[in-house]
Amino acid sequence: MINKFKKQGGFTMLESIVAIFILSLSISGVFSAVQQGLSQTIIAKDEVKAFYLAQEAVEIIRNKRDNNQLNRISTGAGYWLDGIAGSLGDPCFNQICRADATGPGSPPVFLYACGMWGDCPVLKQDQSAYLYNYATGNPTNFKREIQIESVAADEIAVTVKITWTKGLASKEFKVKTILFDWIDI
Prior knowledge:
Elements: H1 13-75, E1 96-99, E2 111-115, E3 122-125, E4 132-133, E5 138-152, E6 155-166, E7 169-180
Antiparallel strand pairs: 1-2, 3-4, 3-5, 5-6, 6-7
């Protein structure tokens, strides 16, 4: 009787190892892409928060300027930068300051002197109202600082710098706007 060798089907050991290696590479690539996407999402979320914190500071300064202007219109007295950077006692006069939209008191005090860049404390977030402030809540990793520079007699440059850390990396978002004395008394 003739013994015929049949060709056996299936994978050899080497083919199995190569297939497992290729499969593991493809799975690790997918996991890496998902992890990087989640990391970029967290970074983008912090950048959006920084943008809104900077915009809020500009709006606080603008609101204070506008209230000064309305007071000047109604009383004929006052200066458009009173309580901002109009004189030596003002919080933003020739120094870095900070702004808080939820300050204590009535009316709330919005601006506080810090001194130099980096001297302002970190913002806190109130967990019940989700508002950022300096008085209550859990400390965040965001620091908001404002610099006001005179451009002309009726013009100031407001620079707001938001800094934070994410892991080992330090991040910064800066916005600059020009405000004018829009009335002439």
